[in-house]
Write a structure and sequence with these properties.
- With about 150 residues, the chain is mainly β.
- The protein has 2 helices and 9 strands, in the order βαββββββαββ.
- It has a 6-stranded antiparallel beta sheet, with helices on one face. A 3-stranded antiparallel beta sheet has the order 2-3-4, covered by helices on one side.
- A hairpin with a 5-residue loop joins strand 8 and strand 9.
Length: about 150
Amino acid sequence: MQFTALPTATVSALQSDATDAYNMPCERSISDGAGNPCRHCLCNIPEGAPMLILAHRPFDRHHAYAETGPIFLCASDCPRGGGGAMPEILTTSPDYLLKGYCAQDRIVYGTGKIVPSADIPTYVEAVFTDPSVAYIHVRSARNNCYQLRIDRG
């Protein structure tokens, strides 16, 4: 499995004043150090660090399953996170909502589940046994905010 952060080109554009999914400017704020996960470096934004708050739609086009919601990003350059190890942003909550999607960006019914953080790798392996699942989205179990994508490794 590969934990996949938002693309650097997308994040760099947002950090340089591109507009969000609703064509609005990103809100600039300061992290309070709690619950501000950057969807690019996949780390929590440290207390006192500048950050962006914006609407994000993790799909290339509009359709019925293309949920849009708030995310945080570091306000300045940060290295793109990801890879095979559990990222920091998935260790700060007791559980997360995981949902499998097919290649046509539709939810694969039966894959949506609130999963304890420690059980994410096992659940991902189980979901990927279904060949119709192309990737998995991880969202906050409490606020439904997009966290990251998991791709087959």
